[in-house]
């Protein structure tokens, strides 16, 4: 039952009603987005550190103050370990329902701690092999395309073209497989992956907007977010591959192998010098839990599947938005080209250490992720009644807390030109001055994005190669100024985004 509009006020908590800015109908059918509502709430709550909002049928606490956000996401994390289920998985016996994003409570904690050592810097350094070899094949395919065209330029559909790279990288990195997708964008593997990753139908929009609110209805009706047949296809491949590895028939440099090694307990955990600022604050430590017990075959397959899906959508979007932004701002592209020219080798490869030293590349990628973060809002569910005496915040057990990432990333208090694509927001000096909690593209705290290091290095490697080998330009059809689409809490590039690539080598 939906609480009445004054529910929060009646509980002594300041309340904003964002439905005056956009109706649920507008949001569900894509005329407006959750960002419009969140911005309305954020801008109308004045100096309040938090306020109450009703998102039928749930009363929600909306946080604005960065210190309070830090408390919820890190200091008092034990109250806020879970999210609502992000995507409906109607069949709770399905292997995929055991993925980290969906697991809750102690089960999540044990699996997360067991899986974390697969993402150390050392492991990411080894993954460079895939980014370099697949990246080079992709660049050569684009060069041939440009050569064959009468204008000497390749016109690409950004979504499908970048997916060719990310599908092949993630197939190598998770499944240990070459799928031939770069040469044949219509390979069976690519078709099945695209059916899962492409979420551009009106039904996807409705599912994304309504499923967090009405999970029981979705479960009752058996509605799933992802294409069931596709998920089954990849589950079967992963199971066969796991069996072969357990028999000792195959050993590969990929996540499935790392997860098997993690189960055996032979992986070194993340060293304290590798922890990022949020992890340091959270003091995440590898514990001596029984990994054998938690990393069962099904759990390994479910994590491989979620790494595969996250590797497809999140990374593709980041690379595509970067290419799009660079096409619209040739001055930024030129400066980046100059910087990457110093580290791309004759054979097109890039070293992990060189890549992580490139300051301007980092500024560009951070700015892409400020404007188009992994999720426009984060959420946590409160596991036990929570009181913050300093701010007066009270969240009851099972209460939902929202962190409005889009509004924070567009607050002029933190970013001087929020509307612009402006990498200068991320100079090392500005980064050092600003609260790190004003940038939440990968989430924050122990429940942040486990694949952050992988995603950043994969995106940087291919963006560096792209500007080294091509000048990226808009076509007549490329929308300007820079814009995206919002589905639920996720950003996507404009449908059918077209870009022109002019060979430089
Ligand atoms: C640029 C690409 C990516 C972005 C921007 C991104 C962003 C995010 C965000 C915002 C969250 C939620 C964090 C929170 O609630 O605090 C998340 C969760 C997650 N991400 Fe990513 N992600 C990306 C790529 C990846 C990749 C490549 C992988 C795996 C290889 C991955 C695996 C996951 C998993 C498993 C979770 C759930 C973690 C948990 O609940 O413990 N992501 N990601």
TrEMBL record:
Provide the membrane topology annotation: Peripheral membrane protein
Could you say which cofactors this protein requires? heme
> Where does this polypeptide localize?
Endoplasmic reticulum membrane; Microsome membrane
Q: What is its main location?
A: endoplasmic reticulum
Give the highest taxon in the source lineage.
Eukaryota
Which key words tag this protein in UniProt? Endoplasmic reticulum, Heme, Iron, Membrane, Metal-binding, Microsome, Monooxygenase, Oxidoreductase, Signal
What residue ranges are annotated as transmembrane? Answer: none
Family per similarity comment? Belongs to the cytochrome P450 family.
Name of the protein: Cytochrome P450
Organismal lineage: Eukaryota, Metazoa, Ecdysozoa, Arthropoda, Hexapoda
